[in-house]
Specification:
Blueprint (H helix, E strand, L loop, with lengths): L1 H14 L7 H15 L3 H14 L5 H17 L3 H8 L9 H17 L3 H14 L3 H18 L3 H14 L6 H5 L11 H10 L3 H6 L2 H23 L3 H52 L1
Helix pairs in contact: 1-4, 2-3, 3-4, 4-5, 5-6, 6-7, 6-8, 7-8, 8-9, 8-14, 11-14, 13-14
């Protein structure tokens, strides 16, 4: 993984290599590159930002190179959101097709890694539109397209892309039917329905959402607090009955409604993760064997 990371850095640098850069600018880049090689990624990011400032409005090609290297410094720290924001500052229209595709790959990858799946899909669509070489796009970005579509639950589109991916990598396309068999019955629950059920009967929404323990606990607490409040009022302890029993019952009642929705969403996400993880692991094995 470390070798692959530095290979990407070298490739991106090579795209923007230039022999007639200003001496001062070369010194800034030499310092930043040295910090990068020493794994001082936070310092390197600052040094590359200095390079960006130094060549602002004078050398856009080297400015793009500095931004790419700064993005790689953030990526090395695992800060994928900051990597993505840095990559967005790059002017893709000033690049060659190969450089644009390589940078686009990094944008999509870091959008995916930072959980910004809608942005990743949008970037994929733009790259596919502007990429004149569909073979290069499929070779570098098709697997990311599958992963992104899976996370967005666009499984029919993901299945079609996965079939294409299998064919390109010498695998039987029919294998997609096996991996996407869950599409016929994904067993996802409706969070809004869970809210409605808990509104009429405490705990039922959690039971519907797949967490029986939370449902029984919610039902037991609310019945207990309601019973305590009514008993205290019946005994003449109105302040205790209303201020403690019924007030806490109301708090747990509305909290239970919110919890039913949260539990259902969490269970749905766990199921989706299981579905998608099988495909992800298969793709990663194929990519590692290349």
């Amino acid at each position: 993984m470390t070798t692959a990371f530095y290979s990407i850095c070298i490739f991106l640098c090579a795209i923007f290599s230039e022999t007639n850069a200003q001496p001062a600018l070369q010194r800034f880049f030499t310092l930043a590159d040295s910090l990068m090689q020493q794994n001082r990624f936070a310092d390197a990011a600052l040094a590359y930002e200095r390079c960006v400032f130094a060549c602002q409005d004078t050398n856009p090609e080297w400015q793009n190179r500095a931004l790419l290297q700064k993005a790689m410094a953030y990526k090395a720290q695992g800060n994928f959101a900051q990597t993505l924001q840095t990559l967005y500052r790059i002017n893709l229209y000033q690049m060659t097709d190969s450089a644009r595709l390589a940078t686009g790959y990094e944008i999509v990858l870091n959008a995916y890694l930072s959980g910004q799946f809608t942005d990743a899909e949008s970037q994929l669509q733009q790259l596919a539109y502007f990429s004149p070489d569909s073979a290069a796009f499929n070779q570098q970005l098709l697997f990311l397209k599958i992963l992104v579509l899976n996370e967005l639950q666009k499984w029919p589109e993901a299945k079609a892309a996965f079939s294409q991916y299998l064919a390109l990598n010498g695998q039987p396309p029919e294998l997609a039917n096996t991996y996407y068999n869950f599409m016929h019955r994904p067993r996802l629950k409706n969070p809004e329905k869970a809210r409605r059920l808990s509104t009429f009967m405490p705990g039922v929404g959690q039971l519907y959402g797949g967490n029986a323990g939370a449902g029984l606990l919610s039902l037991g607490l609310q019945l207990g607090l309601l019973g305590f409040g009514v008993y205290e009022i019946w005994q003449g302890y109105y302040l205790t009955g209303f201020g403690t029993g019924l007030a806490l019952f109301q708090a747990f009642y509305f909290g239970g409604i919110e919890n039913a929705e949260t539990v259902t969403k969490r269970k749905n996400n766990e199921k989706i993760a299981r579905y998608n993880n099988q495909i992800k692991q298969f793709i990663l094995r194929v990519e590692q064997e290349k």
